[in-house]
Specification:
globular, single chain, five-stranded antiparallel β-sheet, Aminoglycoside 3'-phosphotransferase, Chain: A, domain 2, alpha+beta, 21% strand, 43% helix, 477 residues, 16 strands, 3 domains
Length: 477
């Protein structure tokens, strides 16, 4: 991976941090007990770099460890943090990681490691293993099966006497964010009751008691009152745990299937058994229309101007390590801002706030909606634009069989908008206005993807996203 020279001068440890052979030797010695250890680190590919202006850079390592005793293979998560100097590296270790090391002493799930955290000198690099995270310190407690069996057991006493809790990692990709799955087994408290419950935990440093209490409860109650065909399953919240920075949510039945169906279509394969891609997208339309037509006055206000301000901040972050791309992104943002000023917003409704096909679950004829952390009062174009951005991006990053229409993604998005307009009984003028505003929001979503791709050095994805930005801005022009 080619790194900009000015970055290497500011963070000289980056050269070692991205050198797999060097890091395999360093991690083996620092975390796994050296070359004579029972555990052998066979792979440690650097991935998901994130540059943090004024702080340094984090890198997540895709590791593979082999147990010499029985040949068992494990895939632990190791994070590296590169600092500009020894002082900042030492300070982070002392203030944030050392207390966590003391708290995990004796944990069985960390027995593989001689040390769960270490400094690599003279490179000013810290390495630590999951679940240690200086930005999410309560992750240590949230991944402790015995502690979480007690915490969650106290919340489900009417249904299950919890005896065991298994903790699995679901997502750990964004800074200061983690999603965990808790599988609880025990004795049912009523005849015919479940012997197992599955819950999800979301960790974030900034929790929201209102969101995970009153807001989700109102949304869930609203859809439970609808007719069978209009019901949408919403996760039941077990509340926000401030001492852990953790929201607990019950599982929603089903799974996301649109992405799989889209990839099959792009490869020219026949559809799998069940609803077609178009049928599932029609159900996604139904979900969007149900949210936007609910009339529920919940969620914070969110405007396109808010999104443009966030993008300006992202451009500034990117400029620190990639000034050329930041200039290009600033040009896109300037064009987007000018176009936004010429198009009047659509009246605000209840919106999902991060509406993507991966958030819509299918379970037979039932439909569920998850990841409602960003519910807001916004113009419906926000949800539509976000949906279209991810649909087009997914289509572009997959190889396409010659039998597949070169404009498939545009056809699907146009059909989605037509179905939505019909569901919301919009007139021709309103549809034209909505289409334009949705494209504005779509470009905002694409620009955010492009900036994050550059920040993570995912340049292949960056190329396709950049091409889409130009295309969609051309449509607006």
């Amino acid at each position: 991976m080619a790194l900009p020279p000015h970055l290497l001068s500011e963070l000289p440890g980056l050269e070692v941090a991205f050198d797999e052979a060097a890091m395999r030797e360093n991690l083996q010695s620092a975390l796994f007990g050296g070359p004579g250890s029972r555990w052998t680190l066979e792979r440690c590919e650097p991935d998901r770099p994130l540059f943090l202006p004024g702080e340094g850079c984090t890198v997540q390592y895709d590791c593979r460890v082999k147990d010499a005793a029985d040949g068992e293979l494990m895939d632990p998560i190791v994070v590296g943090r590169v600092f500009p100097d020894r002082e900042s590296c030492t300070a982070y270790m002392t203030r944030k990681l050392a207390p966590l090391v003391a708290r995990v002493d004796g944990r069985a799930d960390l027995a593989t490691f001689a040390k769960p955290a270490a400094m690599l000198e003279p490179h000013h690099v810290l390495v630590h293993v999951w679940p240690l995270d200086g930005e999410l310190p309560t992750l240590v407690e949230a991944t402790d099966p015995r502690r979480m069996a007690r915490v969650i057991g106290g919340l489900v006493t009417s249904r299950l006497a919890v005896e065991r809790c298994r903790v699995d990692l679901v997502s750990y990709r964004r800074r200061s964010r983690c999603v965990l799955r808790y599988t609880l087994t025990g004795r049912p408290m009523r005849r015919g009751g479940p012997e197992q419950l599955v819950l999800y935990g979301k960790l974030t440093p900034r929790g929201d008691t209102v969101l995970y209490g009153d807001t989700l409860a109102k949304l869930r109650a609203h859809f439970e009152r609808q007719r069978d065909g209009d019901r949408i399953a919403i996760p039941r919240s077990l509340g926000w745990r401030p001492e852990l920075g953790l929201a607990l949510l019950e599982e929603v039945a089903g799974e996301a299937k649109v992405g799989t169906a889209l990839r099959r279509r792009l490869k020219g394969k026949p559809p799998a058994e069940g609803p077609t891609l178009e049928d599932m997208l029609s159900r996604c339309v139904r979900v969007a229309a149900a949210l936007h037509g609910s009339g529920l006055p919940i969620g914070r206000p969110r405007t396109l101007d808010d999104r443009l301000a966030d993008l300006e901040n992202e451009v500034g972050i990117t400029r620190v390590f990639s000034p050329e791309f930041a200039d290009r992104a600033a040009g896109w943002l300037s064009r987007l801002t000018a176009l936004a000023q010429s198009l009047e917003p659509v009246p605000a409704k209840l919106c999902h706030g991060d509406f993507k096909y991966a958030q819509v679950f299918f379970d037979g004829d039932a439909v569920g909606l998850v990841d409602l952390d960003n519910v807001c009062q916004a113009e419906p174009a926000l949800d539509l634009g976000q949906f279209f951005a991810y649909l087009r991006t997914q289509a572009r990053k997959n190889e396409r069989d010659e039998s597949v229409s070169p404009t498939l993604e545009h056809e699907l998005c146009d059909r989605f908008l037509d179905d939505y307009a019909q569901a919301m009984a919009l007139g021709a003028e309103d549809v034209q206005r909505l289409r334009a505003r949705a494209t504005l929001h779509e470009v905002a979503s694409l620009l955010r993807m492009a900036l994050h791709s550059q920040q993570k050095l995912k340049l292949t994805r960056l190329d396709s996203t950049s091409a889409l930005i130009e295309e969609r801005l051309g449509q607006l022009g």
